[in-house]
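Design job #97: recover the sequence.
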């Protein structure tokens, strides 16, 4: 007799297996966290229950939502501008050797300048204001996007573009059906790494020279040595970034990579 439950179990495992694994990994992290708390003083590492309680209190009675909105606004602006201008620069350098020769030295310099140095210089040159903060984050992230997209442009299979010209495809159709699918993995890599990097730099910028945002709050709680509040803000912001990754970036990645599953 044929076991008809195996196909159903396979489908369920394929649909819910990755989500279950992620959930179990988070549960394991909480268990390890609670175990480590038993070895250290609660003042140095508060238990998960205390952190989540503080998080709920801050959401209900504090100004956490305001500071999160400020940080997310800065992350959105700098992430978008870095991705747009970095992609354009990377594609130009990848397709035109002369442009790459001219700007490769500058790109290497920007990649190796510490983020903290760029942030401090921007605040010293342009003042402690919003524009300086955003400019510092963009300067730090833009080179990484440029390098990734430059490699993507170099990896484009020109033979496929020749086939598109032979079949007289329009430039728009060639771009959407031939060029962009080859570039998509590099765009996604730049976006995913960019999101992880930008919000970290934004927090440093807010800590040094802003009067609002999650970084500013972390600086205040650091001065009070309030570890519970610091962990509460950190967990909340990581949860937001994780939600963006799960609800936006991963579905986009699955969509543009669906041809590989055919």
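Job complete. Output follows.
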């Amino acid at each position: 007799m044929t076991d008809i439950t195996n196909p159903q179990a396979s489908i369920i495992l394929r649909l819910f297996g990755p989500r279950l694994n992620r959930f179990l990994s988070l549960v394991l992290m909480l268990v390890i966290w609670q175990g480590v708390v038993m070895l250290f003083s609660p003042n140095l590492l508060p238990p998960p229950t205390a952190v989540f309680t503080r998080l709920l209190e801050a959401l209900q009675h504090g100004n956490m939502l305001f500071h999160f909105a400020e940080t997310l606004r800065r992350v959105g602006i700098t992430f978008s501008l870095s991705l747009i201008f970095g992609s354009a620069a990377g594609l130009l350098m990848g397709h035109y050797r002369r442009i790459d020769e001219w700007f490769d030295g500058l790109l290497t310099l920007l990649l190796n300048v510490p983020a903290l140095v760029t942030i401090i210089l921007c605040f010293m040159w342009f003042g402690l204001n919003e524009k300086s903060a955003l400019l510092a984050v963009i300067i730090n992230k833009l080179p990484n996007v440029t390098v990734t997209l430059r490699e993507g442009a170099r990896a484009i299979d020109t033979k496929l573009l020749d086939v598109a010209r032979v079949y007289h495809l329009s430039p728009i159709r060639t771009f959407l059906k031939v060029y962009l699918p080859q570039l998509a993995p590099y765009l996604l890599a730049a976006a995913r790494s960019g999101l992880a990097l930008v919000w970290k730099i934004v927090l440093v910028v807010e800590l040094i020279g802003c009067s609002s945002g999650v970084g500013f709050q972390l600086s205040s709680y650091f001065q009070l040595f309030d570890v519970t509040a610091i962990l509460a803000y950190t967990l909340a912001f990581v949860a937001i970034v994780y939600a963006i990754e799960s609800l936006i970036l991963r579905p986009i990645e699955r969509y543009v990579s669906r041809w590989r599953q055919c």
